[in-house]
Design a protein that fits this description.
The complex is a heterodimer of chains A (1043) and B (253).
Chain A lengths: L1 H19 L14 E5 L7 E6 L7 E5 L4 E4 L7 E2 L8 E6 L7 E5 L14 E4 L7 E2 L8 E6 L7 E5 L11 E5 L7 E4 L5 E8 L7 E11 L2 E4 L5 E5 L7 E3 L11 E5 L7 E5 L5 E5 L7 E2 L4 H4 L9 E2 L7 E3 L5 E3 L7 E2 L13 E6 L7 E5 L2 E5 L7 E2 L12 E2 L6 E5 L5 E5 L12 E2 L5 E6 L6 E6 L3 E6 L4 E4 L19 E3 L7 E4 L3 E4 L7 E2 L18 E2 L13 E6 L7 E5 L4 E4 L7 E2 L12 E7 L7 E6 L9 E5 L7 E2 L8 E6 L7 E5 L2 E5 L7 E3 L8 E6 L6 E5 L4 E4 L3 H5 L9 E4 L4 E3 L23 E7 L8 E6 L5 E6 L5 E7 L26 E9 L2 E11 L7 H37 L5 H21 L13 H13 L7 H36 L10 H7 L23
Parallel strand pairs in A: 16-43, 60-66
Antiparallel strand pairs in A: 1-58, 2-3, 3-4, 4-5, 6-7, 7-8, 8-9, 10-11, 11-12, 12-13, 14-15, 15-16, 15-17, 17-18, 19-20, 20-21, 21-22, 23-24, 24-25, 25-26, 27-28, 28-29, 29-30, 31-32, 32-33, 33-34, 35-36, 36-37, 37-38, 39-40, 40-41, 41-42, 44-45, 45-46, 46-47, 48-49, 49-50, 50-51, 52-53, 53-54, ...
Helix pairs in contact in A: 4-5, 4-6, 4-7, 5-7, 6-7
Chain B lengths: L1 H17 L5 H11 L3 H5 L3 E10 L2 E10 L3 E8 L2 E7 L4 E4 L9 E2 L2 H10 L9 H4 L2 E10 L2 E9 L5 E7 L5 E10 L2 E15 L4 E11 L2 E13 L13 H8 L4
The chains are: A alpha+beta (1043), B alpha+beta (253).
Chain lengths: 1043, 253
């Protein structure tokens, strides 16, 4: 009794306590507001690791540089992302050969290019990737390899490359003997030296080889090699390690890659970076080494191409993935390319991972900077996997056509443009290449959509004539006394929205062109530190020089303009300076010096101007290149005189922060760890994760008329959050209400659809936005009890249709197909194209949300397709004929149903007199004859039989399927068929007139047939008015009334 | 009756605030109580429901009939044609007249497995031990932002279904299971809402179910009428002979 009483008391208290609590804003508040992936996968992205089960149809795991882990269960046709809620940078993936359901993942890519991401340790799945357990080693930052003992699934070794931009003791070789519950660092040299590769003898798991590598990256410099580097071996399961030196270079070494011959495990190969990088071979388990080939592809970029494989059945066949993959069939003495001499290649260059099927060494899977390729003949030819949308966008922009297109550049995959929607989804062929190299910013010209600006690494600016396909190089060059121009790897380009016709470009100076790049003016002094100590790119690379412009520093990195004041320009540099000009570049002020709390010299990753106050700007700093992983975000409201640090500390290093165009409190922050949204001006943040993985968001743009947020993810292509109108309306005050009706943008009644094609499952198809009307509302709490539904009403308050309501906490979005229900067809033996009802006419419709006893109202606006070539009169004509046919079909169906119902009633009578039975048989026969006259009754799959029902249904489908005026032929056919419906109705009525009274007489008054009436039939089939007209308390879009 | 439900739910909600960590048995006891008690659940000898399936712009009326211990009969209608899937305790069969094939055919193993699962109307958490189902309390998590308790049910045949109970009301918010179709495995999630009391003694029954396959919304099922313990003939579930199948597949209204 005591417990019961306390429960009641607690029950009474709970609501009061709940009301006092502020409403939690978290990822679920955004609820049904989903991101959609539009890809592309046509060029895919960088693959960092591969593994697979062996056998006829291998289960393939693909680890990507920054797009997570993917799995194919069908040998590489279709792939699914299986790691979306975890770190997206994959350094190693290893399937346990003892139990292929055990999959180990080491996060943090070890191909340490300038734009590499960071990992957070080791994960294990025990069910083939469905669920993941984090096993620690969180601060290792990057992992190059994992090996599992062939004798025990509990024992595994992790090759931790470690931190790239700072000293760290969390690196080297780790061992677990309890499946990751605990770890022991068994090989460690110093804070600058990590593990670059690790292999285990397949016949004796106590024999392990590890490459140790001293390396470091700085914002302006990379060095590979040093005293720490060396090749180590353990023969006691990792307890002790010895450096192997006999035959290897005595001088300083750099990155080492290893491969062991499965078929002859005494043979081990290694590529060893040194002053003269080469392949080495040992046939005595590493004791002695012989120098083999030093071919170009063996020597190329050891920090980036540290992969080596041996054919599992042939110890003399060695694969060296490099810029391209080269093959040796003579034990490493010589290499030849499988790609027609090396440069006529059907495969994207830059190869990082290669898997060979142990059961069938003809089958290879190759990971490149441009996705995955599969070969079935040892690399003789390749098929690209088309289902991996792991493209690494740096930036994104859009044009102003409908549907709009997006533009952007990608790591090693040039620049591309594609539509935000397309019939049947966004297909590979919808994307077009618009640039080259490593692409970054890309814009369409504001005056001429045929002109596109793009760039590639180190400041190479291009202008494309889209129609002709001709590129012109248009970068500025140093003028007069100016120093040589320094362009960042990712040089900032701004095609002005405030001053259409103007483009800005940043070296250490800001450049402006008003003639499409034909000529340039320098409109600033050097806006960087111009510090010589930050300009070491000419000697970058360490043992292997690698001056690709990736380390260019002391450069302008971000340019912003104000739409409120076209002469207001902001510039930020990669060495920590922020400058402002309020007169179009005539004078500049260093306003970054007023910022407190961010280490000096920290890279300014983005400046964006506010949309609501000319003095407002938002700045993100990115310190990860010096080991600072914090989120640095600031705003100013007084032109940079003072700055406020926003409350975002541990959301990942920041790439971009933008204020909403409509709601000044609504902020979007892209970081290395995803997209974050603040609804209160930056005081609180929640990760947006509805269909958006924890992927780096390098750029985002808010479409001014579609109200979409377009995301450039560096690893998962472009995502779009369609129509953020509901989010804008969900103010702090509204969040406390139980139900809030929210506005949506006008719904376009899209015309056209996908035509017939069957492409198989080998293509990624980007999602389209909802092509229906969307009704939006907010629920403070999930709906559990009682009815909840949505009615759509016309101008006479009559219910057009009823929709299933969304019930989740947060924002809900419910689709209304903008149609009546499908017509009701009589039973037949064939289907007709009448699965959907006629579209309603364009205009504003009322929305009634019923939740339990309360009702809430809003409106939804339907507008014609902007591309429509049909006049409003033509669309209305289509709607009118659709409705005539719709009514005719329902009339026919009702009449036949009415007759069939009589037959059914008669069948249910078991005590008929002989006279009544005879009359019943006559009636049923007459019904069957009538039914067969107007509907198809032949059995069979393809009978070709077409009666009134089928002809009517086909015509209905054809008229409804076209948005404009029906053809004269269709009108003519409709007239004939509707006339025939009248004949059918009359024939049915005649049958009733002729036989029903006699039938009822034979049945007797009490047993007389109850004739089905139209109102009952309509209601039963949801075709009539289900409820009376509603209260006419209509309101402005987005507001609501409680009843 | 509705007041009883509200009180019951209120009590469950308050009990959560009393004990933050519960054992599996405690959660199950509250679940059974939330469902109206074991007697109400076990007394269901037959069930008949009608409603509609909604798939985007398309709607299809459907009916579902159950007779203890395992007979099920489901119909759905498209353009006046009625599809049927049924299991009579021994034979699983279906009739799909849409492509001109009005004769019943036997189900595949995958289909049979699914239709048999439909016969477990009380759900995997009720009388689990007797059915050979192993239950494991996974713990607290969230479904679409609603706090829930996750229970993993492993059936005798190895099938696994995860049940997510609303932390406050102890009723199903969602179930997740792997389903096999054409030899391929897909993940099916069913979201429950619109609970209303049905029967005497009353128990809350979800009148709205949203089904996602591999994360994509496939269909909503709206239950309009639910009746317990009505007369249902065994004949309904038996596979008809070909001559009578045409009639079975025609919709009379």
């Amino acid at each position: 009794m005591k417990k019961f009483t306390s429960m009641i008391l607690a029950g009474l208290l709970v609501p009061a306590i709940n009301e006092a609590k502020p409403v939690k804003v978290d990822s679920y508040t955004f609820g049904g507001l989903q991101a959609r992936s539009i890809g592309p996968a046509v060029m895919s992205g960088r693959i960092s690791a591969l593994d697979a089960t062996h056998g006829d149809v291998p289960v393939i795991y693909v680890g990507t540089a920054s797009g997570g882990l993917w799995k194919s269960k069908d040998g590489g046709i279709g792939f699914e992302a299986i790691f979306d809620e975890h770190n997206q940078s994959i350094g190693a993936v290893q399937v346990d050969d003892n139990n292929p359901e055990l999959v180990w993942v080491g996060t943090g890519e070890s191909w340490v290019r300038n734009t590499v991401s960071v990992g957070d340790g080791v994960y294990l799945s025990k069910d083939g990737g469905d669920q993941w357990q984090h096993l620690g080693l969180q601060t290792t930052e990057r992992i190059a390899a994992i090996e599992v003992s062939s004798q025990s699934s509990d024992t595994a070794f992790v090759c931790a490359t470690g931190a790239l931009w700072n000293d760290s003791a969390e690196r080297g070789v780790y061992r677990t003997t309890d499946q990751g519950s605990s770890w022991e660092k068994v090989l460690y040299l110093d804070e600058r030296t990590g593990c670059s590769d690790l292999v285990m003898d397949p016949n004796n798991p106590n024999i392990i080889y590890a490459g140790m590598w001293e390396f470091r990256r700085y914002p302006d410099y990379f060095t590979s090699g040093g005293k720490g580097s060396g090749l180590y071996r353990s023969v006691d399961g990792g307890d002790s390690w010895q450096e192997m030196t006999n035959g290897l270079p005595a001088s300083e070494k750099g990155r080492i890659a290893l491969a062991i011959a499965d078929s002859q495990s005494t043979t081990v190969y290694a590529t060893v970076e040194s002053e003269n990088t080469a392949l080495y071979r040992s046939d005595d388990m590493g004791k002695n080494w012989q120098r083999k080939s030093d071919a170009g592809m063996v020597q190329m970029r050891p920090f980036y191409f540290g992969e080596l494989q041996v054919d599992p059945a042939d110890p003399e066949r060695v694969y060296k993935p490099s810029f391209i993959t080269v093959t040796s069939v003579d034990g490493g003495e010589t290499f030849s390319s499988m790609f027609s001499g090396g440069f006529s290649i059907p495969v994207h260059p830059d190869h990082h991972a290669l898997w060979i099927n142990k059961d069938n060494p003809n089958q290879l899977v190759l990971g490149t900077d441009g996705g995955v390729y599969i070969s079935y003949n040892k690399g003789g030819n390749w098929r690209m996997v088309g289902t991996l949308p792991v493209s690494q966008f740096y930036h994104v922009s859009h044009d102003d056509q409908w549907p709009y297109h997006v533009y952007g550049g990608l790591q090693d995959n040039g620049s591309w443009e594609g539509p935000s929607r397309a019939p049947g989804g966004i297909k590979p062929g919808d994307w077009n290449s618009i640039g080259m190299g490593d692409g970054f910013w890309a814009f369409v010209d504001k005056h001429d959509h045929n002109i596109i600006y793009s760039e590639y690494q180190g400041g190479k600016l291009l202008r494309l004539n889209r129609t002709v396909g001709e590129l012109k190089n248009i970068p500025p060059v140093a003028q007069g006394e100016e120093e040589d121009l320094r362009f960042n790897w990712n040089t900032p380009l701004l095609v002005s929205e405030a001053k259409p016709g103007t483009i800005y470009y940043g070296s250490q100076y800001l450049h402006r062109s008003t003639d499409r790049g034909e000529s340039w003016q320098t409109i600033s002094p050097d806006l960087t530190t111009d510090d010589d100590k930050r300009q070491r790119q000419a000697t970058t690379g360490g043992l292997t020089i690698d001056n690709s412009t990736a380390e260019n520093n002391a450069t302008i990195y971000t340019i912003a303009e104000s739409l409120l004041d076209p002469d207001l320009l902001w510039v930020g540099s990669d060495d920590g300076l922020i400058h402002l000009s309020r007169n179009g570049g005539d004078q500049w002020q260093n306003v970054g010096k007023n910022i407190k709390g961010v280490p000096k010299g920290t890279w300014v990753s983005r400046i964006t101007a506010g949309f609501h106050n000319a003095g407002t700007a938002f700045v993100t700093f990115d310190g990860h290149r010096s080991g600072d992983m914090k989120t640095h975000t600031y705003r100013t409201d007084d032109y940079g005189h003072s700055w406020q640090r926003l409350a975002a500390e541990d959301l990942g290093y920041a790439w971009v922060l933008k204020q909403d165009r409509v709601n000044p409190d609504l902020l979007f922050l892209g970081t290395e760890m995803g997209l974050y949204i603040s609804m209160d001006g930056g005081a609180n943040w929640a990760r947006f994760k509805e269909n958006l993985p924890k992927v780096a968001v390098h750029d985002l743009v808010i479409h001014p008329t579609e109200h979409d947020v377009i995301l450039a993810t560096h690893g998962r292509g472009v995502y779009i959050i369609d129509d953020i109108s509901p989010l804008r309306a969900l103010t702090r005050e509204k969040l406390t209400e139980n139900v809030v009706m929210l506005p949506s943008r006008p719904s376009v009644m899209v015309e056209g659809a996908a035509l017939q094609s069957f492409s198989g499952g080998d293509d990624f198809i980007g999602d389209n936005p909802s092509e229906v009307a969307v009704i939006s509302y907010y629920l403070k709490k999930r709906h559990m009890f009682g009815d909840m539904k949505i009615n759509i009403l016309d101008e006479n308050d009559e219910i057009i249709t009823t929709l299933v309501a969304g019930k989740r906490r947060g924002i809900n979005r419910v689709d209304w197909p903008m149609r009546l229900k499908a017509p009701k067809f009589p039973p037949s033996t064939s289907l007709v194209p009448g699965f959907v009802g006629p579209r309603v006419a364009e205009g504003t419709y009322k929305v009634e949300l019923i939740k339990g006893k309360k009702t809430y109202y809003s409106t939804v606006e339907l507008v014609p397709d902007p591309r429509s070539e049909h006049s409003r009169e033509d669309r209305l004509a289509q709607q009118k004929l659709s409705m005539q046919l719709y009514d005719a079909i329902n009339d026919l169906t009702f009449r036949l149903s009415q007759l069939k119902d009589v037959v059914t009633q008669l069948d249910e009578r078991s005590d008929l007199s002989r006279s009544a039975e005879k009359k019943a048989e006559q009636f049923e026969q007459a019904y069957n004859d009538l039914n067969a006259r107007f509907t198809a009754t032949k059995k069979g799959m393809i009978t070709g039989e077409s009666k009134l029902r089928e002809q009517l249904g086909t015509l209905f489908g054809n008229v409804v399927g076209y948005s404009g005026r029906p053809s004269q032929t269709q009108y003519q056919q409709a007239e004939e068929l509707i006339a025939e419906v009248s004949v059918a109705l009359d024939a049915g009525q005649a049958l009733l007139d002729k036989q029903l009274s006699g039938l009822n007489k034979a049945l007797g008054d009490e047993a007389a047939i109850q004739l089905l009436d139209r109102a009952t039939w309509d209601e039963k089939n949801g075709l009539g008015l289900a409820t009376p007209p509603v209260n006419k308390a209509w309101l402005v879009n987005g507001a609501h009334i409680h009843h | 009756m509705k007041k009883q439900l509200i009180l019951m739910v209120g009590l469950l909600g308050s009990s959560l605030t009393v004990s933050a960590e519960q054992s599996l048995d405690e959660v199950l006891a509250e679940y059974v109580e939330a469902r109206g008690g074991l007697e109400a659940i076990e007394n269901t000898k037959t069930m008949r429901t009608t409603g509609k399936m909604v798939m985007g712009p398309m709607e299809a009326p459907f009916s579902f009939t159950y007779k203890a211990p395992d007979k099920v009969y489901t119909t759905f209608e498209v353009q006046g044609m009625k599809g049927i899937q049924a299991y009579d305790g021994e034979t699983g069969w279906q009739l799909m007249p849409f492509m001109g094939k009005p004769d019943p055919v036997l189900m595949s193993d995958d289909e049979l497995k699914q239709v048999k699962n439909q016969g477990e109307i009380e759900g995997p958490l009720i009388n689990a031990e007797a059915k050979g189902t192993t239950l494991e309390l996974i713990g607290s998590t969230e479904i679409e932002g609603t706090p829930v308790i996750e229970i993993k049910a492993t059936k005798k045949n190895g099938d696994v279904i995860h049940v997510f109970l609303d932390e406050e009301y102890k009723l199903e918010v969602m179930t997740r299971a792997k389903v096999s179709a054409m030899g391929q495995e897909v993940e099916a999630e069913t979201y429950f809402s619109d609970y209303k009391e049905v029967g005497d003694p009353a128990s809350p029954v979800a009148h709205s179910m949203a089904v996602k396959i591999n994360g994509n919304m496939m269909q909503n099922m709206i239950l309009e009428v639910i009746e317990f313990n009505v007369d249902v003939s065994d004949d309904l579930f038996a596979m008809p002979v070909a001559e009578t199948a045409q009639d079975a597949a025609e919709v009379t209204d």
